[in-house]
Amino acid sequence: MATSQAPSLGDRLVEPVTNISDFIWVGTWNGAEVIPFPPMTIILLGIGLWIMIGLKFYPILKLGSAFKGLFAGRKSQGEGEISPFAALSTALSGQVGTGNLAGVATAIALGGPGAIFWMWITALFGMALAFAEGSLAIRYRERTSDGVLRGGPMTYIMMGLGKKWTWLAVVFCLGTLFSALVTGNSIQANAVADGLNELFGIEEWLGGLIVAVLVFIVIIGGIKSIGNVAEKVVPFMAAMYIFMAMIALILNFGDLGETFALIFHGAFNPQAASGGFVGAAIIIALRAGVARGLFSNEAGQGSTAIAHAVAQTNDPESQGRMAMLGTFIDTIVICTMTALVILTVRGDFTGGGESVLHAWQSDKVGFEMTSGAFAAAFPFTLAGIPIGTLVASVALILFVFTTLLTWSYYGERAITFLYDRMKGSTRSGEKKLHMAWRVLWCFVIFLGAAQPSELVWRLGDISNAAMALPNLLALALLSGVVFKLAKGEKDAGPTHTAETPEEPEEY
User: Fold this and answer.
1) What angle do CA 10, 15, 20 make, to 5 degrees?
2) What is the tens place of the pLDDT at every residue in 376-431?
């Protein structure tokens, strides 16, 4: 008698991991309400609102001057490792990844068109959080024994709040390692392997191997090498993607009004029934928009502060503006372009066995939905592949490649901080640890490329929260310092330092 095959460990983990993810983001367990509000969503938006009000809406009012600062940001204006613009490009290369293509599609699939409205709201509050992170990253930086400046949430916790908060910095670093290996690596590797498979028919394991080798070539040179590549690739890839999305929307201009109506209707109505979406509760739209918004722009998560900390500037306020600009470009510009193409472009799609007009109504999920919408906008083929599919796939590969570079550095900084808490840590020991981490990072790319993605996406929501919670607590505690930094007080707040026998020699 034939026996059914036992489910794999991954399959068995999907249900408990989904429950933990839903509890954190929605307040449910096994589909039943446990808490009457979405915990992580309330915390993220609540602290974002607090800082936005305390900044007197500075991120919105100063957006124009932030864009003007892009040009000045190409020049060194103080101590650091890379130019302020390169720091922004590095942060953006970590932000702009699979979340901008597959993540937006997932948000729409989970929460309907209304999820996009909540993604926008997350980005606006996220700009306040990003300003706080970027400015604190410059205000509080540690110096190694050989003179290298570096920082991030672990540093502004230690220097801004004092040694008694070391536990919070450690928790943040553990969350960062978790998030780096799941969202910064496995999800990205999985997406780029799928893109290479769709474009060139390359086996996923081979695609993972190719990407791992290319990533290693860049990250072997550390943050200066990563910043150099990001500064050249990120502006080009973002501009090309936005340009192609704009053309797709111009070709379907007549349907744009209906798209915006769907977004606003779905954000405030229990069911976004128009357009064929069956039953997205407001809370689900809210959760999907906020969770995927955080996944994409990382505001409040603390990751981008690690990149901004190495900028060659001594002005916390100017780098804070750079940081908030990253959130605006990532979500308000790039994610919105993806969402509008998915919701607006008409094509020959199938949903539930019936013919439907748009990709978001179809059976397509994730990146397949985004790629399908672009293919419908640009159906002409090149070597048998629709131009639209080619555009979306190349964008995905470039976006994901640069994300893999930057998140390797974030993970490296987290593991270095934990090592520096050990007695006898040295600069040479750090450098050996960095090399071991970079090899491990590329090995995980190879492994992650061929893994099923459902479990990894859910783990991603948990790992993002594990990283964001300690950082959000630190931002709330240091919010008074942030408000002073926004007024141009470069040395606002206390500085807690003490001589240590380990690296860095002064904290």
Assistant:
1) 110
2) 989 888 878 888 888 888 888 888 888 899 999 999 999 999 999 888 888 899 99
Per-residue pLDDT at 151: 93
- Summarize pLDDT for 430-484 with one digit per residue, the tens: 999 999 999 999 999 988 777 666 677 778 888 888 999 999 999 999 999 999 9
CA distances from 212 to 186, 218, 412, 438 (A): 12, 10, 16, 10
Q: Report pLDDT digits (tens) over 476-487.
A: 999 999 999 999
DSSP string across 388-457: HHHHHHHHHHHHHHHHHHHHHHHHHHHHHHHHHTSTT--HHHHHHHHHHHHHHHHHHHHHHTTS-HHHHH
Contact status, residue 300 vs residue 129, Cβ threshold 8 Å: yes
- Three-state DSSP state, 278: coil
pLDDT tens digit string along 335-355? 899 999 999 998 888 888 888
Name the packing angle between helices 387-420 and 222-251 (round to 10°): 150
Name the DSSP letter for residue 333. I
Whether 337 and 247 have beta carbons less than 8 Å apart is answered as no
Burial class (CB in 10 A: 0-12, 13-18, 19+), 274: middle
- Round to whole Å and give the CA distance between 368 and 355: 17
d(CA 290, CA 300): 12
C-alpha distances out from residue 77 to 139, 143, 306, 313, 339, Å: 15, 18, 18, 5, 37
Task: Find the helix or strand (DSSP H, E) in which 369 lies.
Answer: helix 367-377
